């Protein structure tokens, strides 16, 4: 019998196979063993511990998979229980082995309310990191509502400015958007005053487009316009973008994890960022030891391009990877907002 308590259960409190438990009891036990991906957060206490102590759980799950479950009534029930046990086992192999999932993110708005985005995250491997939502994108999304928005983000005056159409829509580009959290949050917050183009590598864009479609109700309600497409930083755009094609705001979260990335990223920002003094680049990235040289190089290259930091800071978030002791993994992230230091 499984009782509901705040203390984690012991695996021996779960129905044991020698007792020939009912299918319902096994399904309930397997639900309790579900390792939900950790909630991203700004404090460690948002992360809940497991409902069952980890000791012995792997053996319990493998014994279910190995059992013919002969006392259960139907093949369907047996299949469902084997599938659930296999899923629980793969969750315990780490975040990369987790099955595809949909996750919900609450993003604060300037009115004090929250908007809710749903993002699909396919199963990830080491070479498609954009299939997962990373902690710095969550922190940057939660920061977006605090940014001065208009007038700091007033787009460059357009030729058709008039009393009825005083400003054109803000043109926003997200680089390496991954699952799209930052760009979709920006679109939801800015509503009809922005058009947001979410970009990534070809293999990531289908899921990005899927996520834009998943949030269509929210985006329609706010009047936001979102498009998605391929933009590979390693490729120089040809022909170069015209002044009208450039973007007022460029967003990027967690974009540096290879020695080539600082140069590629800044070389991509250069042609695509509007030359207006109101143009902004907003980036947030984890300060992982291994990639500190890339962060330093990025700063250097942005400065060389003529961009200067307007505002910056560090904050700690909690990624959904576990630390060695099984607790939430604290990640210090650096956020920065850049503008042209002089009209270029
Ligand atoms: C660590 S993930 C971050 C994804 C997302 N911004 C987030 O924070 O959740 C890095 C992203 O950069 C993208 N990326 C890497 N190299 C790229 C390139 N050459 N051109 C465009 N995107 C690239 C990856 O596909 C991936 O989506």
Question: Which features does this protein show?
Answer:
alpha/beta; Rossmann fold; seven-stranded mixed beta sheet; binds S-adenosylmethionine; S-adenosylmethionine-dependent methyltransferase activity
Question: Any overview of this molecule?
Answer:
The protein is α/β, with parallel strands linked by helices. The protein has two domains: 11-93, no CATH class; 101-340, Vaccinia Virus protein VP39 (Rossmann fold, 3-Layer(aba) Sandwich), CATH 3.40.50.150. It is 29% helix and 22% strand. It has helices at residues 23-32, 57-66, 75-91, 135-143, 181-190, 205-214, 216-222, 261-272, 292-305; strands at residues 101-108, 114-121, 170-175, 194-200, 225-230, 249-253, 280-286, 307-322, 328-340. The chain has a seven-stranded mixed beta sheet, sandwiched between helices. A hairpin with a 5-residue loop joins strand 1 (101-108) and strand 2. Helix 4 runs parallel beside helix 5 (181-190). The model is unreliable at 154-166 (pLDDT under 50). The site of S-adenosylmethionine (SAM) has 21 residues, from helix 4.
CATH class category label of the largest domain: Alpha Beta
Kindly state the number of beta strands: 9
Please, what is the CATH homologous superfamily of the largest domain?
Vaccinia Virus protein VP39
Number of domains: 2
In the CATH scheme, what's the topology name of the largest domain? Rossmann fold
Helical fraction equals 25-40%
**What's the alpha carbon Rg, rounded to whole Å?**
24 Å
List cofactors, ions and other ligands: S-adenosylmethionine
What CATH architecture of the largest domain would you give? Answer: 3-Layer(aba) Sandwich
Strand order, largest beta sheet: 5-4-3-6-7-9-8
Mean pLDDT: 84
Largest sheet: 7 strands, mixed
List the uncertain runs. 154-166
């Amino acid at each position: 019998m499984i009782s509901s308590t705040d203390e984690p259960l012991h695996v021996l409190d779960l129905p044991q196979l020698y007792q020939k438990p009912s299918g319902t009891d096994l399904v309930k036990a397997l639900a309790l063993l579900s390792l939900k991906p950790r909630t991203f957060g700004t404090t460690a206490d948002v992360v809940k511990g497991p409902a069952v102590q980890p000791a012995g759980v792997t053996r319990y799950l493998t014994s279910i998979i190995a059992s013919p479950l002969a006392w259960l009534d139907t093949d369907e029930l047996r299949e469902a229980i084997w599938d659930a046990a296999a899923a629980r086992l793969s969750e315990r192999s780490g975040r990369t082995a987790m099955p595809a999932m949909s996750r919900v993110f609450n993003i604060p708005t300037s009115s004090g309310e929250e908007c809710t985005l749903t993002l699909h995250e396919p199963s990830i491997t080491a070479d498609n990191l954009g299939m997962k939502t990373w902690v710095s994108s969550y922190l940057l999304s939660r920061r977006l509502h605090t940014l001065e928005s208009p007038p700091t983000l007033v787009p460059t005056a357009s030729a058709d400015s008039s009393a009825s159409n005083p400003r054109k829509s803000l043109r926003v580009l997200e680089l390496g958007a991954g699952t799209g959290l930052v760009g979709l949050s920006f679109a939801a917050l800015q509503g009809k005053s922005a058009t947001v183009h979410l970009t990534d590598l070809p293999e990531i864009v289908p899921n990005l487009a899927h996520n834009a479609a998943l949030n269509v109700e929210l985006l329609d309600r706010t009047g936001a316009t979102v498009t998605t497409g391929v933009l590979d930083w390693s490729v120089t755009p040809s022909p170069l973008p015209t002044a009208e094609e450039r973007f007022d705001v460029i967003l990027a979260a967690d974009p540096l994890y290879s020695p080539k990335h600082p140069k590629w990223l800044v070389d991509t920002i250069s042609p695509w960022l509007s030359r207006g003094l109101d143009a902004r680049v907003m980036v947030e990235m984890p300060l992982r030891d291994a990639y500190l040289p890339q962060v330093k190089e990025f700063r250097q290259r942005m400065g060389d391009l003529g961009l200067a930091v307007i505002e910056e800071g560090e904050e700690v978030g909690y990624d959904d990877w576990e630390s060695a002791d099984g607790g939430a993994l604290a990640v210090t992230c650096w956020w920065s907002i850049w503008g042209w230091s002089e009209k270029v």
